Each structure stands twice: as C-alpha cells, then as structure tokens.
Amino acid sequence: MKNLLLITVAFWCLESNAQKQSFPANIKFDHGLMASTKNSLDAQNNYDLWKTNFVETCSNGRYRVKFDPSSQTVSEGIGYGMLLSAYKADKDLFDGLWLYYKDNVNGNKVMNWKINGCSETIGQNGATDAELDAAFALIVADYQWGSTGNINYKTDATALISAIKNYEVEANTYVLKPGDQFGGSQITNPSYFSPAYYRAFGVFTNDITFWNQVAAKSYTVINNNLTVNNAVGGLVSDWCEASGAYSSQAGGYNNGGKSYTYDAARTPWRIAVDYLWYGNADAKTYAKKSSDFVRVNLGGSANIKDGYNQNGTVNGQWHNATFVGAFACAAMAGENQAHLDASYTDLKNLNEPNSYFNHTLKTLYSFLLTGNFYLPPTATLSNENFDIEKSTVTLFPNPSADRITVSAPGKSTISIISSSGSVIHQQKTTSELTEINLANQSRGVYFVKISNDDFKSITKKVILK
C-alpha cells in the first residue's frame, strides 16, 4: 500500500508539471496576416543559435544572458530570455533565468538593470521593459507547467505585476514609467509600451480596469508623439513626454531621444501583438502606418536602415534585424500579403549571430511571425456559458470625447442606446475588449447595454463630452 501511495504521488507530481504546449505551437492568430512562407524551423534555428551564443551558466541552477560586452547582463536580456524559453518550453533555462532575476532585485523587488557576470550589481534599479517581459513570461510559464513545482509561477507573476503597478506606472495618470526610480509624464519610452500584456495582466490579477487604462494611455502617448512632431508613419521618438513633446530629461540619450533609433525600433513589434491577440483598432492603425512607411515610403523591407528622424528622413546606415523584424511584425496588420512575405524573407536572411540585440530580437520577432508568441488561454476571460450578472463589465474612458472600450465576456452583445431610447449601435463581441467609435454622435448621456444569449443584461451609463 505504501509503494502504491508513493507511485500515485510521483505520478501526480509528473502530471502537475506536465507541459501544456510543446514547440512549435504554430498558432494562427484571429486577427491579421501570416506570412505565406512562415516556418517554425526558422524560429527553432534562431533560438538554438541564441542559446548557444548568449546563454551562460552561473552557479546553483542560475543562467544569465550575455550582453555587449559579454561579461555583463542587463535585465532586458533576462526578460527576453524568459519569453523565449517559456514559449520554447525550455523549463530548465526558464527557471534558471528567473532565479537569476530574483537574485538581483532591489528593494522594490525589480531587478537591478545591469549586472557584472553572475552577481555584481553595476547598474542599480529597474528598467520597466524587463519587468513587463518577465511578468508576462511568468504567465506563460504558469500555463506551460502549472505552479505546483519548485517555483510558483502564478504567485511570482502576481507579485511582479503588483510591483510594476506600484512602482513603474505613474500614480493617477496611467503613464508607464521607464523605471521604478524615474520617469512618468515628463519622460517615458514608447518602445516599452506593451498594451497586450496589460490586458492579460488585468485578467490574471482581476484588475482589468486599471490595466486597461494603462493600455489606453499607451496609445494616447504614441498618438500625441506622432501628432505633435508631425511624424511620418509610425516613427515615434525614442523618448518623449506624455504630451508627445520631446523630453528635456532625455539629453543623455541618442540625439536627445528625438529620433526613431534603437529604442523606438521595437515599438511596431510590441503594438502589433495587441492587434494579433486582441484585434485592437488603435494597434491596427499604428501597425499599418508603420508597415506602410516601409512598403510605400521606403519601397520595401530591403531598404530599411537603422534610424530615422520623425519626418521620415534616414539617419542610420545599417540594415539589421532590430529594425527589419519589428517592421515585419507590423506588416502582419498591414493588409498586404506580398509585403509581409518579402519582409519575412528579408528577416530570415539576415545573419548577425554575435550581436546580442539584433539576434535576440530577431528570435523574438520570428516567434511572433511563426505563431509561437501567443496569448495563453489562462490569460483570457472565459467565453462559455458566462453569467453576465456575475461578470466584471467595465467601460473606459468615461466621460469620453469619441471612443469607448467595453470590457466584457466574449460572445456578449453590446448595444448603445441614446437618452431617448433609440439603439444607435449594436454588435456581437469577439473578445473581451471591444472598442466603439461614437465620434459621430451628439454630446450627452448614452447607455451601454451588455447582454448574453440568455437575455440577461447589465447596463452602464457613459457621457460623451
């Protein structure tokens, strides 16, 4: 009987740590295009090369990602590595990277941004993009392996998301700070904005309203930056104020943070994810602008250089994966299959195996392009047989000047009703977030009715100003 009990316990432990999604996942996104020639073997080869060239073993099961110079590690690299290893189902590497992250945190429990080798802090305090990537990677890990093993991924994800909320989002404005010790409305970094993650954070921590506001603010800042500086396409600046203007605090960065260079270059990738996963309209608009800039203004992916002024003039000289791959991801929302296919091929043929930044980002981009960078089912709201009266339904912003976003279970029906009782808009939702444009309606009070197939409903009031 004792032996039977031991066998049963051992079997349960194996089951509880069983992998949910092997690689390749080959997900076909509900929104956007996929390259005709996509092949997960490309992502596999990029990952293998990345792991060989940039992962180094530390003691006690820890791993680090080599930076430039290779003796150093930055928190950004740990976040990237956690994403890659979680999607690749490489549990040993994932756990070692996360343990390294936790070994090197500051008092706010976010990783000090630069480490010499395996343990010596040489750059103190957090860089927010690292926290965002690491937190989302933990959500993927919880889906992949569950949280009953040696590391409770769910608890750790929740704690890190809380730290981001408390220390890396500016209080009352929802502006993402670039670090736990600096920034906000006076200086922020659009390439850190990860609205798709925020929506997942909201569901994962039951804090949907807050994180949806952070997502909405991301688009406000990006659109401000493009408008204020008369930008071409989606060429955001590396750094800016929340108003979109250039920041006086960015003097120490390349060209005072006023150009589209190695920070801003990641923005099309991060925003494209929000369209591919959620179908967000603002994400599609931005991604299409970015893709069309390459297709129309530059004449194709082969002509991309590593830097632009916001007016579209070139200030870079190299053709590399950091820029090519992000624009290729944007082409997934660009509505031109031939351009996406050419962009995919261009990225595939770039060979920069010893460049930490270029090859790491190439690998991340290739995961998205091949359907291996996906939203885990555990980070979405249930769409089946929901009880609308017990569901969390929110809408924002309220009051609104033109658009509102309704957060409600998928497969519900949204009706917009005027104060006189007329239904002016109605649609069936396809995901938990639905954006509705009311720009053509008169100012005043409207009612938003969310109903399910059992004819139960919730009604919210919105003010159009």
From TrEMBL:
Where does this protein come from, organism-wise? Answer: Flavobacterium fluviale
Q: Which family does it belong to?
A: Belongs to the glycosyl hydrolase 8 (cellulase D) family.
Q: Which top EC class applies here?
A: hydrolase
Keyword list (alphabetical) reads:
Carbohydrate metabolism, Cellulose degradation, Glycosidase, Hydrolase, Polysaccharide degradation, Signal
Instruction: Tell me any Pfam family this protein matches.
Output: Por_Secre_tail
Signal recorded as keyword: yes
Gene Ontology molecular functions: cellulase activity
GO BP terms = cellulose catabolic process
Q: What is its EC number?
A: 3.2.1.4
Q: What region holds the Secretion system C-terminal sorting domain?
A: 395-463
Q: What is this protein called?
A: cellulase
So what does this thing catalyse? Endohydrolysis of (1->4)-beta-D-glucosidic linkages in cellulose, lichenin and cereal beta-D-glucans
